Amino acid sequence: MDVDISRSRVGGRARAPPSKSYTHRAILAAGYSDGAVVADPLVSADTRATMRAVEAFGGHVDRDERRLDVAGFDGRPGVPDDVIDCANSGTTTRIVTACAALADGLTVLTGDDSLRSRPQGPLLDAIQQLDGRAESTRGNGQAPLVIGGHVDGGAVSIPGDVSSQYITALLMAGAVTDEGIDIDLETELKSAPYVDITLEVLDAFGVDAAETSDGYRVPGGQSYGRDEAYPVPGDFSSMSYLLAAGAVAGDDDGVVVEGAYPSAQGDSAIVDVLERMGADIAWDRDAGEITVRRSALSGVEVDVGDTPDLLPTIAVLGAVADGDTRIVNCEHVRYKETDRVRAMATELEKLGGAVTEEEDVLTIHGGESDLRGAAVAGHDDHRIVMSLAVAGLVAEGTTTIEGADHVDVSFPGFFDVLYDLGVELDEHER
Questions:
Q1: Could you confirm whether 152 is annotated as catalytic?
Q2: Residue 259 exposure: Cα atoms within 13 Å on the Cβ side
Q3: I want to staple 70 with a disulfide (CB 3.0 to 4.6 A). Which of 3, 30, 75, 407 is the partner?
Q4: Where in the cell is it found (predicted)?
Q5: Which residues belong to the annotated binding site?
């Protein structure tokens, strides 16, 4: 599906979907238990992949309108009857890889073309350090993967600058091993707030884990469990597009984003970024509402070491702002669904943006940018698509986003929300 977006003003109230990061972790935590309920989950292409994995390991997931009833495998995943297809979900692949290492037999994990290009090597090496079997069928550290155990715990040394999801995977699996897992980080941890989310979810399911002087430690012999339904908070990564839309194209009343309650999500930093850029933005944390109006923005420097998913949003804001916006510490953003640094540089240039791309820095020269509608590629990446939609709100003429249906990965109904806010758009098949 392609979407045509015309220059528009936006206003009204909107609610971002529940957090994808929390939903993934809550589904698997419920799978590790003997049964639990996940309330207000994000049901998307990615999280359905995690549901399929839980069922492949012997659990069962019943979906109701606003909840998931998960019958878990009680800490001992079975050997799947078939290959687990993780589709486009890198999070699923990684957290399930460590889970598979607990089983007594072999699990095969694969996914689509994009997923099969993403690095898994450090996690495979960590499982091997724990005396598990972990192989890439092509010998390149990428899926398809063959994983087996039975891992009993121990100590691992792993880099922290490739993906925090490796740490999440080991912490979640380590709780139900006999010995627990000690994680020694060889490098500085990138995307650290995502591990904070993991620790928060583990605690909510009765599991102890903690940061140490060298990394992280999760004791073994624990059980996952929760009497009450686990409520999934709103997703700040998804909110970033709505907040950016209000900042660049809001009417006098602006856009009010609901469900914005404080949590461990690092991407709530988008509020601080917008404030530093000069946006008219206010966050009522008690009410869980953020109000933002169209503002004159100025370029800033933003370190995305802990918030890689914000790079596409910030890049678009930079193209609208005066002066330069420098997005630094971003090399790891190249290893997502696509190389998001290259993708944003390429597509903003098509729209008339002035961009300088370096390995670890993306600079958007707002004062030299003049956004005009053009046909742009979504790169089969939900975050690229949604950020380019924000750019389309201010580009002169019509912007056509190819492959726009990929928003289903994290924000099903994204374009319906934009339409309700007043955006002129047309969805059509290629």
A1: no
A2: 20
A3: 30
A4: Cytoplasm
A5: 20-21, 25, 90, 118, 163-165, 191, 309, 336, 340, 383
